Amino acid sequence: MADALGIASSIITLVEISHTIVGYLKDVKEAPKERDKLSKELSNLAIYLETVNKLTQTADADDPWLVTAQRLSGPFMQLDVLLKDLKKKLEPASDGMGKVKRRLLWKFTKESVEDVLKKIERIKSLVIVAVQHDHAALSRAINKSLAIVDTKVDGISDNTKRIERDVSFVGRNIIRFSNQVTQIDGEISHVRNQIEKNQDDKRLMRVIAWLTDLNFKSVQAEKLSLRAGDTGRWFLESEQFRKWVDGSVRSSCLWCPGNPGVGKTILSSIVIDYLQSLDYEEKTLILGIFCDYQSVATQTIANLFCSLLKQLVQDHGLTSSITSLYNEFYRKQTRPSIDILTKILSQELESFHRVYIVLDALDEFSDNNGGRKELIDMIKSLGANIHLFVTSRDITTIGTLFEEDTRLDIRASDDDIRACIATKLSCGRLAGLIKGRDDLHQAILDGVTEKAAGMFLLAGLHIDLLSQSTTSKILRVALRKLPDNMAGAYDKTLERVNSQGEHDRDLAYRIFGWIAFAARPLTVLELRYALAVELGTTTLDPDNLCNEDVLESICAGLVIMDQPNWIFRYYDISIVRFVHYTTQEYFMSRQDDLFPGFESIIARTCLTYMTFNDFDIPRTCIPKKTYTTSFFGSPLALLLRNIEKHMFLNYSCSYWGYHASGLVQYSIEREIITFLGVARHRKVADTLRTRHIHWSPSPVVPPSPLQLAVHQGLLHITEVLLDRGADPREELPLIAAAEVGHLKIVKLLLSRDDVDVNQADPKTFHTPLMEAACNGHEEVMKAILASKHMNSLNSVDKDGDSALFHAIYKNRSKVVRILLTTPSINTTFPNSFRRMRKRQRVIIGA
To answer: InterPro entries in the record, alphabetically (predicted)?
Structure first.
């Protein structure tokens, strides 16, 4: 198992370096063909490495796969050296300027790039052969690869001969021999220490990757790079801020509200940078959280607390409690509860004299069920040494959370606005227009500063509007007509969009619609493929793909390409988003007149994409022990190949039901029913989801139309299928609904006489109650328990585990409390004692 963890650690490191290099390559301007080829090859390699990692992590101690995987250690070491050398040549300069200082020229010759590509291709071939478990082929391939790659063998041979001569000489001189032995001992000790350090570093990277995908350190660095001049100095020198820093105020929390566009996020990054620059006599920790309206689904309180632990580990290394947390939950493939995370985080922060936590954009954190209040209360409860800094819009409900805390309003000073404008005027179209015209330069500074009213965003929109001027006269007229509020600025910007040609205008609005209504941020490639789909077709025409540069150029500065605040799993790590969350709000406020029926367009696009006839559909599942199925025919390999080849497939399979729910399912009922009626379409929609990769030699059977409709939360479609004769006794829709937590569908099914609330899955013996408990769906579980026919409270599955056991084992503390208060609940677990001992504290906590 230690070997397995070592292999997994190596792979995680290699994948992360690969993604980093791909990100760096985006700034390389020369040799575009070689750059793109290398980027794609690295991305493909990362996908195959993750395949090896998955097989290794799921293997038992006696699994023959581990023997095969161990043979890849040598190639992985070569790859590690190759990638680190490549990363070193491409990484940003060390002065902290990030992208601004990144190397912009491709410094390798085409020949050297081809050499790198050949080495990567050889190692990728070894990985593929290994996953196929062809031991003989793997041995031959490794031997051949070593013969090609290791160009230093002759040098090693020469060194060996030199060592032999040295040994002969030492034999004639015992004193010198003794000295060399001492030196060798020192070198061995150094190597041993280096190996231990490498192992510690790999363990550190494993834990960091496991804690969370959120990457607030990169967000902070990115936002700080946008700072213009010395902006924000007034804030750092304010009395309220200085007293908050030194702790001389009654409250340790500083709330800083501000209007949209005043630069709250950049100011938060400035505050973090300032705090990190101070010299502290006592042990101090600085942590950051950047909330984002586009990442509501991933930015839960539990995930934010994991990000705080991640930053702590990044700055101060691993501790025994965090290592124990990782060891316990990683092997079980479960996540710690918020109670456990709070306890661990509180214990870790106790060792610091003072902990500064900067929380930006609280108003962009979900307030469902009082989420904002819960987040603030839980952060404040972490310890008396917590100094909390919060920014948000000036919203009454948020203000009530800080009535007893210090308040410092954010409003960009005129000097800051001028510095920002001056930076924008130093380059681009306006720079040429005002060159040598100090009067125009000053007029723009004065006019935009006045109209911006302390908002950086509004100033930026004004500059974008002025940049369309072609003469000085037109520029002065545009300057007089600048809007003095955000809505007016957006209206003016849309006038620019509307003035384009018909094709560009229509494409721009489609881009706006996709960004506004997508279930999650779209990558650049996903958006390009989505825009290329033609409804009613069976294939995607590659000639219909728009160029990446077009996405920004026709949108009048309202759309930008950015890095996500999480580690993206696939090779296209750039996402497309609006320039500001107020842009999203503006478009949503005009949904009816700008985007009528756009949700149905997205749903139909997803359905059309999943009907394309060039997907590889798996016939059987992956065998767990024998691995007799070829990797290239396995569901996992097909999934990876399909995601790599069909860039919009992952989104379509994951979110078509999200877009088709609500009223949309009524308007496109016929298309949904037609889609569900084809087994191949259902198989595409279901088997290409990562969490449904099964580990058994059984054939891949697509879900029934009813099962898929239930799983996607399509209440109306579920009713239609039931009315048309779908049999709930055969298809077990209640189990599916309880698993995913669709409460309305659960209530619909419970109201029917032909649905048995106690019916278990014939393969696993899981009941609807077990699925609800296992997945933490409290309201669904309450509805099931309230059913008058409910009598399977203490039923057990094929392993002898009850619903209560599953809830405890999965750390569903709220569900556990509900079950423990249910009459007649059985709290003994005779068949699960060994596993239950590891969860005793959860029972006690419940």
So the answer is: Ankyrin_rpt, Ankyrin_rpt-contain_sf, GPIID_WHD, NPHP3-like_N, P-loop_NTPase
